[in-house]
Amino acid sequence: MTSFITLLRRELWEHTSLKAIPFTLLVFVLLANLAFIFVVGSADSTFTISTGDNTQNMINYIDFFSQMDADRQARIINGTMITTGMIINSILLIVMFFYLLDSLYGERKDRTILFWKSLPVSNRETVLSKLSIAAFIIPIIIFITTGLANLITLALQSYTLLHNQHTAELLWQQADLTGLLMFSIFLLIQQTIWYFPVMGWLLFCSVWCRKPPIIVAVLIPAMLVFIDSSFMLGTGISEILLERLPLGIMSMQLGNESSLMTYPYSMSGQQLPGYDMTAGIHLPTFEDILRFVGNIKVWMGIIIGLFFTGLAISLRRWRDDSL
Amino acid sequence: MNCLITAKGLTKNYGRFRAVDHVDFQIRPGRVVGLVGPNGAGKSTTLKAILGLIKYRGELEVFGRNPRIDRAEIMHDLSYISDVASLPEWIRVDQLLQLMKSTHPSYDLSKSLNFLARTDVKQTHRVKQLSKGMKTQLHLAIVMGINARMLVLDEPTLGLDIIYRTEFYDQLINEYMDPQRSILITTHQIEEIEHILTDIMIINKGRIIINMPIEEIGNHFTQLKTSKDSAAEARKLHPVYEKDLLDEAIMIFENTDATRLKEFGEVTTPHLADLFVAAVKGTHHD
């Protein structure tokens, strides 16, 4: 176990982007909030913001916001926090994609595989440590980064309210922190399960390819979709693959039958993006969870993910420093 | 005595190219074995088979285990330094030591630290900041910390200057070697390891053509330094290798009566470097 934890730490030592990118995102959130404070604080502010019905001067907007009814305030606050979380989530999913593609290819490219294989660490442990980074550590990083980003936003916007002679209490009262916490946890669990076959596929490509694996990892699914759609074969492969593409997690929120989440902040119809601000956060019910767990697509994905992970472990046995 | 490594009919093909061809050898405890051969002779392929990095045909046992199946278990007792800078460039020295401590059950951190204390390598250094010589010292420091029964070195001093090369082998013998441990070294610079070897294996075109303890070389091979005038007569005894110098000739004979050779000039045991050239370029048959 100690050895496995060290393998996880070794991944974090090597892939500094797993720390640097969340940190950069937090700095960006901080700067965006400071810019907002600066704009609101300037006496001759001419910046405006659309509130749907009309356009407001920023200073007036603070007054306008404080006079809104509590439900509308909650929708704006929670909607902002969810949007922040979704942006962080999307960026770190891209980081995960490239991490997995490089994880078993990079060690052959720089020939460090000779050193890694000189350690008494099995191929299974090595591959599972990389999978664990994608399946557990990155979701934890997303969760912490989102939480910190939202706390930064709440803290600095409290200052904006206080500075403009309003109480900050309304911000903290209307922010559904517990709901957002639970929402993030459910979403990240669902996302990890949903993307598990993609993770397995990327690991397999990373260990299998002798050229940069991104070509094969993207080209093969793209070709399958192209052939299936162009010749109208109706195999269902296109649907299965498109559901798992990066936008798949978004499509899950479009009333997809595989979706665990039934929260109303979903993209409705063809509007991208467009959160439904008409209600608060709805966490999945026990029935939703049962429906998700009982979905054949979820289990097929897990089996496919395990299959590709097993192949990656098996293939790494015969990989040396040659590409 | 139990062998640490046993190979019987070890064969490896890369497509149609046969890199290793029905190789047999054994390595016993307490031996320092040199596996030497020209480029492409099959040295690194043989080592990769021992390390469980490649598929092969034939029988190969390392500590009684099959490296194709039990690589991770074998690595508890086997250390390896490769010919390339295989240490990850991004890692810090302290992280590397921590990694070794956590993953290697028989690793003694204090031994590595003691070794490093005598070098210019600092724990805060990243590998990419180290010179090639310092990287080799760091790798050696790690090896010193592993209580391994077998050390495999693949061209470990390639690219190092003479000071580091000499120091490397001195430290290896003085601080690593004991009667229970063995070392298998591949190198081109055979003259540098000649004095530390107990056994020599010369490999060419995938086949081992000489495999014997150093002390037996004199029983099998004889080097004759003779004048140009006597060379023609000596040549009738079928030397396996001949080298012309300015006024004399050097010949190496295999299994030839040394007293007969003395009639033609000075008779000695050949140096390993000369034997290597004789084996690879000459008419020697295994």
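qc> Chain B has a mean pLDDT of 89.
qc> done
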